[in-house]
Amino acid sequence: MLILLADAFTPDLPERLAEFGEVTSDMSRIPEAEVLIVRSKTRLDRAMLDKAASCRYIVRGGVGLDTIDAEYARSKGIIVDNTPEASSIAVAELAFAFMIAMPNHLVRADISMKEGKWLKKELERNELYGKTLGLIGIGRIGRELALRAKAFGMSVIAFDKYVLSSDIVKIVSFEEILACSDYISLHIPLIDETRGMIDASAISRMKNGVYLINTCRGQVVIEEDIADALKSGKIAGYATDVYSKEPPEGSPLFEAPNVLMTPHIGASTEENLLRLADCIVGRLRKYVGR
Ligand code: NAD
To answer: Cβ-count burial of 223 within 10 angstroms (0-12 exposed, 13-18 middle, 19+ buried)?
Structure first.
């Protein structure tokens, strides 16, 4: 069995997978591979899947399958799997880091200090304590973020189309999230019904000076509308790890103030990469035992 490791994983993963078959990262061998292992970089669209003529099993190390044409793969008899359990803490910690960095002006303070400036008055901070965090999506990552925000004395509310009650947060309507939140953090999958969910109309129903955090997917928001709302001051800050196009060349976000950007590193903690490797080895063991 040939296992094609398409994206970057821990250096020891090829050796760990060798007990199941030959392991390669040579993409030209895709027609021979029975197992394809990917993260976010390699997109398994129809054209790629047509090349993967021997493929029987795909594992995506990560949450969500929006980088794979899973329906088409399944129509060819391929089993499509992912590892949603691995990344929750890594992503929640990045979302929380964004929530601390924005009202404390950490990036601006650091840059201005290194430019020889002493901007004490201009860098007046805001506390998270007593503020309301509105979560859109209270699955694995939303839950981890809620626990952290509550430890900081925030009041946490959540909207989730498929969750009606929760032991840790108050479940409210989408409208209530927009109207009541000082911070809104997005933790939903990219599917047809969530694409463009945060547009000019949704933004207009938010509090003035709201902070928006996006660690889920870029296409869940309309970036042009976010940029306009940042320019007008309606949104005080937008912190994002994800973009409608990655890398976000020519994005309107580059022209807007108070944007904090990271290059889709939500899942890229050392600890999470180790967890991903463990999950993938576990998935392969199950697959060969079928
Ligand atoms: P999850 O499946 O545990 O939770 C998603 C929640 O969204 C679920 O509770 C679901 O009911 C809810 N939901 C689905 N459709 C909805 C809708 N239309 N309106 C409101 N709620 C809806 O997923 P998770 O592990 O919490 O991950 C969330 C997302 O984070 C993933 O889909 C992925 O896109 C993203 N993610 C990003 C990174 C990164 O590197 N930045 C890493 C991992 C995951």
So the answer is: buried
Query: Which residue has a Cα nearest atom 16 of ligand 1?
Result: 161
Alpha-carbon Rg for the chain, nearest whole angstrom, is 21
Residues in the chain, pLDDT under 50: none
Domain containing 76 equals 2-86+270-288
Number of domains in the chain: 2
pLDDT in tens, 8-21: 899 999 999 999 99
Task: Return all residues near 127 (Cβ < 8 A) that are at least 6 apart.
Answer: 103
**Do both 124 and 249 map to the same domain?**
yes
Alpha helical stretches, state H, 20-169: 46-51, 70-75, 88-101, 106-114, 140-151
Q: Which atom of ligand 1 is nearest to the CA of 241?
A: 41
Nearest Cα to Cα of residue 178 among 219, 210, 224, 154: 210
Which residues lie below 8 Å from residue 244, measured CB to CB, with a gap of 6+? Answer: 218, 219, 221, 223, 251
Does the global pTM surpass 0.90?
yes
Residues 105 and 234 in one domain: yes
Residue 117, domain CATH: 3.40.50.720
Tens digits of residue pLDDT in 100-122: 999 999 999 999 999 999 999 99
**Do residues 55 and 194 share a domain?**
no
Q: Which atom of ligand 1 is nearest to the CA of 142?
A: 26
Say which of 60, 148, 187, 264 is annotated catalytic: 264
Same domain, yes or no: 142 and 281 = no
Question: Which of the residues 105, 217, 275, 283 is marked catalytic?
Answer: 217
Are 257 and 167 in a shared domain? yes
- Asked whether residue 104 falls in the same domain as residue 199, the answer is yes
